[in-house]
């Protein structure tokens, strides 16, 4: 694999020091930057691979199309190895979100839809067997090594990566992505360098999977803290490496997580496509529990789309696959899906149907029954998931008219949520806030709505 600054790559640090190039970078004139790279022998295909763009996009930019979006400029800078300061990009994604916040809403929506389409194309290509990280894919690692790497690595080194990922994932489950995302990203800055180190085929294969899993965790914690573009970038890298490692179960895991990103962001149609693509990998993995997870999430997506027959069909498949999985040696990532999560996911799908006014009386009571079973079994190491379940349960209690119980459970969710650093909690509490605010004659419900409002604005 080529890297920025390596002898095999024409894109070297010297490219950025010529005055003409520095002027183009300072002006964020990407068209001029690409033209200058072409003059020193960098092909359109190499530029596309390095920057994560399609060749058609590169061609359009070479013809003069301007690049304005911060995240695209940042991806171009990182992909080509340009110091961000040269392009005035010396701030993180959280700051960038504030900077571009004044952009036209329609343009932002169009940009997000384009990103979803590109990710889906990328995911489909990787899942269906396209070559990834090929000889011209360039460096997806933008930063230089800060710590010297060993000359050769063995299984012990890979086990340490796996152990670090498990420990960090445990912190994410219990305290939220905001508690550990920086640590995950910092760990990756060292770990991903090992892909360049000499290793046996067995070690290399396991290393691909280990680094893929850490990228997946980086994507998940980025999602949990509201950094959607970072999440998408990490999941894309995770997908490529999992495919290189030949781990279909991990591919399914990554696609499931990316589907959840879209589901959370009210893009149920795109989420469903991710889950269906993940289902292909899940079937190939041979793990019934992995298949059950994808079926359960498909049911939830169908619920958001008010596809009642499909929800019932996928709930049935979920239960069948879960039963079939009993006694199997499931992959580590999917072991979280126990009987509590089974009830929780079924409850989520039914609750999604209950969000539609015409379905409330039919599905809200069913959702309550499933979510009660779910929440009774959660332990302290799954605090965030417990908050999600409690807030959804409280919401459905109110839908069926049991407002006092809804308030009680909602306050319990708020108490647990105070200790967790997760933007998703704030987002997932919004439906409960709306349900509580409708109870104009119940002061306790209105107090809960106000408490959630304050929590979500802090």
From TrEMBL:
InterPro entries: Cro/C1-type_HTH, Lambda_DNA-bd_dom_sf, TPR-like_helical_dom_sf. Residues 41-87 form the HTH cro/C1-type domain. CDD domains: HTH_XRE. It holds the Pfam family TPR_12. Signal peptide: none annotated. This is Transcriptional regulator with XRE-family HTH domain. It comes from Kutzneria viridogrisea.
């Amino acid at each position: 694999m080529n890297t920025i600054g390596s002898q095999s790559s024409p894109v070297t640090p010297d490219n950025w020091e010529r005055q003409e190039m520095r002027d183009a970078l300072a002006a964020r004139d990407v068209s001029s930057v690409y033209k200058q790279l072409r003059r020193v022998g960098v092909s359109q295909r190499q530029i596309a691979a390095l920057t994560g763009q399609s060749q058609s996009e590169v061609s359009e930019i070479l013809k003069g199309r301007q690049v304005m979006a911060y995240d695209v400029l940042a991806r171009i800078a990182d992909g080509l190895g340009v110091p961000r300061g040269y392009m005035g990009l010396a701030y993180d994604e959280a700051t960038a979100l504030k900077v571009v916040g004044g952009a036209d809403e329609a343009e932002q929506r169009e940009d997000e839809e384009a990103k979803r389409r590109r990710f889906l194309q990328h995911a489909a290509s990787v899942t269906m067997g396209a070559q990834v990280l090929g000889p011209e894919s360039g460096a997806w690692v933008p930063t230089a090594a800060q710590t010297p790497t060993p000359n050769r690595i063995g299984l012990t080194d890979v086990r340490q990566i796996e152990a670090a990922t498990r420990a960090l994932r445990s912190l994410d489950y219990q305290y939220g992505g905001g508690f550990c995302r920086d640590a995950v990203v910092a760990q990756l800055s060292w770990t991903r360098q090992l892909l360049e180190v000499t290793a046996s085929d067995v070690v290399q294969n396991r290393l691909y999977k280990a680094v893929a899993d850490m990228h997946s965790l980086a994507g998940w914690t980025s999602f949990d803290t509201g950094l959607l573009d970072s999440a998408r970038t990490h999941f894309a890298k995770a997908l490529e490496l999992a495919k290189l490692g030949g781990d279909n179960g991990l591919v399914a895991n990554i696609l499931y997580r990316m589907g959840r990103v879209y589901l959370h962001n009210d893009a149920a149609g795109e989420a469903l496509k991710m889950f269906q693509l993940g289902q292909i990998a899940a079937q190939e993995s041979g793990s019934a529990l992995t298949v059950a997870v994808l079926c359960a999430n498909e049911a939830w997506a169908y619920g958001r789309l008010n596809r009642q027959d499909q929800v019932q069909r996928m709930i049935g498949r979920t239960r069948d696959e879960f039963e079939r999985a009993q006694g199997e040696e499931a992959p580590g990532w999917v072991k979280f899906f126990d009987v509590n999560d089974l009830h929780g996911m079924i409850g989520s799908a039914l609750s999604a149907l209950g969000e539609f006014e015409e379905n409330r009386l039919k599905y809200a009571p069913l959702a309550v029954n499933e979510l009660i079973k779910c929440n009774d079994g959660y332990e302290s190491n799954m605090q965030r998931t417990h908050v999600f379940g409690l807030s959804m349960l409280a919401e459905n209690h109110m839908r069926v008219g049991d407002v006092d119980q809804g308030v009680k459970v909602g306050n319990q969710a708020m108490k647990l949520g105070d200790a967790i650093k997760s933007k998703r909690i704030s987002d997932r509490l919004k439906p409960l806030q709306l349900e509580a605010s409708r109870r104009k004659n119940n002061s306790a419900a209105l107090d809960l709505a106000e408490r959630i409002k304050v929590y979500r604005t802090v």
